[in-house]
Design a protein that fits this description.
Elements lengths: L4 H17 L12 E2 L8 E3 L6 H4 L3 E7 L4 H17 L4 E7 L9 H10 L6 E3 L4 H6 L6 E5 L4 E7 L4 H13 L3
């Protein structure tokens, strides 16, 4: 099974309109968006050897698309860091995908420094060439993709906010039998 990119693009268009109206959030829930797309396009990995869907099967996964100079990402990262620490022993794996918005964010040495300073201990894919971004059909910073133990994308959240709701998604996916 593959991810339905057209459905994600349609949802992305709706979300973009809602962002403009200030109404975006967790409006992206549905049973499944399809199988988790590839992470294999990353040029480098920080805090981990390369990861991909087969290595993550059986785990609940949160894929966080972010970039270090995005204020919305800076506001969401403490929550992502907290979830990574609190739920790791229950089977949650957080994977950050750093896809730069600006040219200066391509500097991997600076990214490594930011990852350390931000206390990010989970795996971070360096996506300077937008290969992972494009494989996922992503359009937003931050964007959180929640994947169940069978490797299916089950929930998508774009932008800041609804941290309680996102945490409930994590808890519900962890509670599912795999």
């Amino acid at each position: 099974m593959t991810i339905d990119h057209r459905a994600l693009l349609k949802v992305g268009g709706v979300v973009l309109a809602l962002v403009g109206l200030g109404l975006a959030g967790h409006l992206m829930a549905r049973d499944s968006y399809g199988a988790m797309p590839s992470l294999s396009g990353a040029s480098e990995w920080l805090n981990s050897p390369p990861l991909d869907a087969p290595a993550l099967k059986g785990k609940v996964v949160l894929v966080d698309f972010w970039t270090w100079d995005c204020i919305n990402c800076q506001r969401s990262l403490p929550h992502v860091n907290d979830w990574a620490r609190r739920y790791a022993d229950q089977g949650l794996v957080v994977v950050g995908v750093h896809t730069p918005e600006y040219a200066y964010e391509h500097d991997v040495a600076q990214l490594k420094s930011k990852v350390t300073r931000l206390g990010i201990g989970y795996p971070v894919a360096v996506d300077n060439d937008y290969r992972v971004w494009n494989a996922w059909g992503n359009q937003f910073w931050p964007a959180h993709y929640f994947i169940d133990r069978q490797g299916q994308v089950r929930h998508v959240h774009v932008g800041e906010g609804d941290y309680d709701g996102q945490e409930k998604v994590i808890q519900a996916l962890l509670d599912e039998k795999g």
